[in-house]
């Protein structure tokens, strides 16, 4: 008989004593359980003791988390959190250097536990940590333990960052700004400032003033990868907390310092692989930079603005320079207006008498005008060739430069997600973005010439405008998906992907979809499905056995803490536990926590997950919702919460867990994989029927013959 749900069988250890094997009654008060354990070892004062996990993070057992204890768990009898907090509070004030160092080291470790942290903070322990930092008498290992303990204690959000004194903040800043400081202290100091910046405008201004961009760039160029990472984290925190004007000034300064080229050469193309954390920061930096275009993108043209009108006129003058040089007195005003209107029509404006009307649509607004002016000034030969080539064609085949530019700018804004908030988890950045100043404008210059090339390949007329722009969008998207490392490589690949290639790709994709429309083939598909679904199930379980590295993400900031989860080879137990940065595939024995598959009750995804509901008070991030899932085990209120690193991992894990629960696989990846496998299997099965049409109805079965005399009589052959 399995034990009742309210009873778990556990082992309890104590140094110098024989372990106790007990059945823990979950309904029994924890104080009574401790009393029984202490009595068994003849220990007085049971209130001075507590239970904690012997493995993993060694969390203290409390009434609120005791339901997380599993059958077979190993606990340890140790000093209670309040006693431990009292001892360490006294220890960190000791005059003995060794005692103080050991106390701070233990404090840094225990502060990860919320129960201990609460006890230590309630004794005004943070004040002592402030004093150690502010006095500045300690350095090296002792200071590193102090800063680590402070970071862990603040992580629990019991105390506001705004309570920090100016002296404390300036001391932390000094560790960042000094050269002769241990790298570990600088890393911790950068991490503290990164946490501080988003909490209030005042703290942002203090950090921005005290830690200059030059100093951050110095750390960013360090050979120490962790120091480089923390410097990038603080830079991103400052950019995200800045106002639009401040952000623009900061990005302009970074551009002057050639930060993009440094990142492109020394981080993206470094000999060391790029970590997930750095990839996320590069994505944010790219997003912040591109979003500087949002202001112009959302601003309609003002026909009364002389500056904007001059930009518009410069397009006409650059394209038709010789015609514009005619002296002012040669033509009347009406004739001059007529000539200008004709030239604006040749430029491809829809409203040639008042071209400003074409730019009143926002988006793309003035961003389209900026792109056209940039193209005309930086590549004047290509600009003139585009305009003059099309103005000499027949009216119905000319490619309208202005109309195409406006639509292309809108397409690029949509593809590059300009104007959209940064994701908290995304890591998708374009390497070529960091290899080029004026990336958006240079990309436009390549793509507007692509429009003209595709227009000619399609022999398009004005009626085909939307069709051409749809093809151009596809050419750009497909090429960007290849992640070219430079704009030159992008240009080569996007031009190679001509209209004929697009048609071939479309036809191939259409054939993949249409080849299965015949009734016999549909029947064969249905017959093959169970076998292929079983293959997908086995693949999902195999992926769970290999395991995945997950990140712990809070609503306040992106965490650098990692944990790993994997399924046992016999598919009966999920093993998980915290791991250090850089660990790729830890052995299953090193993961202390486990959940029997038999105890799993339900899978929750998205908004149903408890860890997404907890953060609903803040601005909920769409990406986190799409990647969140939870396993409900034992009783419904106890869950193991996940945030998958990618949508691909989310699909594989939710499918695998559904298989373990005996349910259908529901992710979109299942359907995609099934379609691919069915397509391959059908191709192999139908290989001999190539170029043979398959009838919708099976051929009729012929009537049986009147006699069977045509059968060979083997008895005569034997004689």
Properties at a glance:
719 residues; Ubiquitin-like (UB roll); Leucine-rich Repeat Variant; 4 domains; four-stranded antiparallel sheet; flat; SH3-binding; ARM-type_fold; PH_domain; phagocytosis; ELMO_domain-containing
What would you note in describing this structure?
The chain has 719 residues and is an alpha+beta fold. The protein has 4 domains: 7-79, Phosphatidylinositol 3-kinase Catalytic Subunit, Chain A, domain 1 (Ubiquitin-like (UB roll), Roll); 84-270, Leucine-rich Repeat Variant; 298-321 and 334-509, no CATH class; 530-671, PH-domain like (Roll), CATH 2.30.29. Helices cover 53% and strands 9% of the residues. The protein contains 31 helices and 11 strands. It has a 4-stranded mixed beta sheet with strand order 2-1-4-3. Strands 5-6-7-8 form a 4-stranded antiparallel beta sheet. The termini are far apart.
The largest sheet is: 4 strands, mixed
**Outline type:** flat
Helix count from the secondary structure assignment: 31
Question: Which radius of gyration do the C-alpha atoms yield?
Answer: 34 Å
Query: Strand order across the biggest sheet?
Result: 2-1-4-3
Structural class: alpha+beta
Strand portion: 5-15%
Number of domains: 4
Keywords: Apoptosis, Phagocytosis, SH3-binding
GO biological process, one term: actin filament organization
Pfam families: ELMO_ARM, ELMO_CED12, PH_12
Domain ELMO: 307-480
């Amino acid at each position: 008989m399995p034990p009742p749900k309210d009873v778990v069988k556990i082992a309890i250890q104590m140094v110098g004593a024989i372990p106790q094997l007990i059945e823990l009654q979950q309904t029994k008060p924890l104080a009574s359980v401790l009393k029984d354990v202490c009595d068994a070892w003849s220990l007085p004062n049971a209130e001075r003791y507590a239970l904690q996990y012997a493995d993993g993070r060694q969390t203290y057992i409390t009434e609120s988390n005791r339901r997380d204890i599993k059958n077979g768990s190993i606990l340890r009898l140790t000093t209670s959190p309040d006693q431990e907090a009292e001892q360490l509070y006294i220890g960190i004030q000791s005059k003995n250097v060794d005692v103080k160092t050991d106390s701070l080291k233990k404090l840094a470790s225990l502060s990860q536990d919320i129960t201990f942290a609460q006890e230590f903070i309630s004794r005004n322990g943070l004040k002592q940590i402030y004093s150690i930092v502010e006095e500045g008498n300690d350095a090296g290992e002792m200071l590193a333990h102090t800063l680590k303990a402070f970071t862990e204690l603040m992580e629990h959000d019991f105390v506001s960052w705004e309570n920090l004194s100016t002296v404390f903040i300036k001391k932390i800043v000094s560790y960042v700004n000094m050269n002769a400081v241990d790298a570990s202290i600088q890393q911790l100091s950068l991490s503290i400032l990164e946490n501080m910046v988003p909490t209030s405008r005042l703290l942002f201004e203090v950090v921005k003033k005290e830690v200059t961009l030059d100093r951050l760039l110095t750390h960013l160029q360090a050979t120490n990868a962790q120091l480089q990472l923390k410097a990038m984290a603080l830079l991103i925190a400052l950019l995200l907390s800045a106002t639009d004007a401040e952000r623009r000034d900061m990005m302009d300064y970074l551009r002057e310092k050639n930060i993009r080229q440094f990142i492109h050469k020394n981080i993206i193309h470094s000999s060391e692989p790029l970590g997930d954390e750095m990839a996320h920061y590069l994505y944010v930096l790219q997003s912040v930079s591109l979003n500087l275009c949002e202001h112009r993108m959302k601003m309609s043209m003002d026909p009364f603005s002389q500056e904007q009108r001059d930009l518009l006129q410069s397009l006409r003058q650059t394209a038709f320079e010789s015609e514009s040089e005619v002296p002012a007195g040669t033509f009347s005003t009406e004739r001059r207006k007529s000539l200008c209107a004709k030239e604006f029509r040749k430029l491809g404006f829809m409203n040639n008498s008042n071209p400003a009307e074409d730019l009143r649509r926002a988006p793309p607004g003035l961003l389209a005008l900026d792109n056209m002016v940039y193209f005309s000034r930086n590549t004047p030969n290509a600009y003139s060739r585009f305009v003059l080539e099309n103005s000499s064609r027949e009216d119905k085949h000319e490619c309208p430069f202005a109309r195409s530019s406006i639509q292309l700018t809108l397409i690029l804004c949509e593809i590059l997600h300009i104007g959209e908030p940064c994701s908290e988890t995304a890591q998708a950045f374009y390497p070529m973005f960091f290899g080029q100043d004026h990336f958006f404008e240079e990309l436009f210059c390549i793509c507007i010439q692509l429009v003209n090339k595709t227009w000619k390949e399609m022999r398009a007329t004005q009626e085909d405008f939307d069709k051409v722009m749809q093809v151009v969008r596809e050419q750009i998207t497909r090429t960007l998906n290849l992640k070219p490392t430079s704009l030159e490589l992008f240009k080569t690949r996007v031009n190679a992907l001509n209209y004929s290639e697009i048609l071939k790709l479309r036809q191939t994709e259409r054939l993949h979809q249409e080849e299965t429309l015949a009734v016999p083939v549909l029947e064969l598909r249905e017959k093959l499905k169970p076998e292929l679904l079983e293959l997908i199930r086995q693949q999902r379980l195999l992926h769970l056995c290999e395991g995945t590295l997950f990140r712990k993400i809070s609503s306040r900031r992106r965490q650098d803490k990692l944990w790993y989860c994997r399924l046992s080879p016999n598919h009966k137990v999920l093993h998980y536990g915290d791991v250090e940065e850089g660990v790729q595939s830890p052995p299953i024995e090193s993961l202390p926590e486990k959940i029997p598959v038999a105890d799993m009750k339900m899978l929750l995804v998205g908004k149903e997950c408890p860890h997404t509901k907890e953060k609903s008070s803040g601005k909920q991030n769409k990406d986190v919702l799409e990647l969140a899932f939870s396993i409900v085990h034992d009783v419904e209120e106890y869950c193991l919460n996940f945030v998958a690193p990618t949508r691909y991992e989310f699909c594989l894990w939710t499918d695998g867990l559904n298989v373990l629960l005996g349910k259908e696989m529901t992710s979109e990846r299942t359907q995609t994989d099934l379609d691919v496998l069915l397509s391959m299997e059908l191709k192999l099965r139908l290989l001999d029927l190539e170029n043979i049409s398959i009838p919708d109805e099976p051929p009729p079965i012929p009537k049986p013959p009147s006699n069977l005399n045509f059968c060979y009589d083997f008895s005569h052959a034997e004689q």
